[in-house]
């Protein structure tokens, strides 16, 4: 999932980090678990994206593992 977090980090590192798949194309049924990275932007921006919130909620509803790093949601 991309909320521009990787773009931000890559711009800080002056390198390119491609996103594997845009959120619009991701199907939560195709994943066994979800890892939410922490950092400065994800915890603040994720709740403002209704599509991302629904994606995360689908993991909880299915009883799948949801993990966070640092101060992820």
Q: Topology, please?
A:
Elements: H1 5-13, E1 33-36, H2 42-45, H3 50-61, E2 65-68
Parallel strand pairs: 1-2
Fold and architecture overview:
With 73 residues, the protein is an alpha+beta fold. It has one domain. The chain has three helices and two strands. It has a two-stranded parallel ribbon with strand order 1-2. The longest helix has 12 residues.
The number of helical runs is: 3
String of helices and strands: HEHHE
The amount of helix comes to 25-40%
Shape: globular
For the termini, the CA-CA separation is 14 Å
Which residue ranges are poorly predicted, with pLDDT under 50 across at least 5 consecutive positions? none
Q: In the residues, how many domains can be counted?
A: 1
SS elements, strand count: 2
Largest sheet: 2 strands, parallel
Cα-atom Rg, whole angstroms?
12 Å
Query: What strand order characterises the main sheet?
Result: 1-2
Mean pLDDT: 77
Short description:
It contains three helices and two strands, in the order αβααβ. By secondary structure, it is of the alpha+beta class.
Can you tag this structure with a few keywords?
34% helix, 73 residues, alpha+beta
């Amino acid at each position: 999932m991309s909320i521009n977090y990787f773009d931000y980090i890559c711009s800080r590192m002056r390198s390119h980090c491609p996103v594997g798949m845009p959120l619009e194309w991701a199907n939560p049924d195709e994943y066994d678990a979800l890892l939410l990275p922490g950092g400065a932007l994800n915890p603040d921006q994720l709740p403002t994206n209704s599509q991302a919130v629904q994606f995360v909620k689908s993991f909880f509803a299915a009883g799948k593992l949801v993990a966070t790093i640092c101060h992820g949601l």
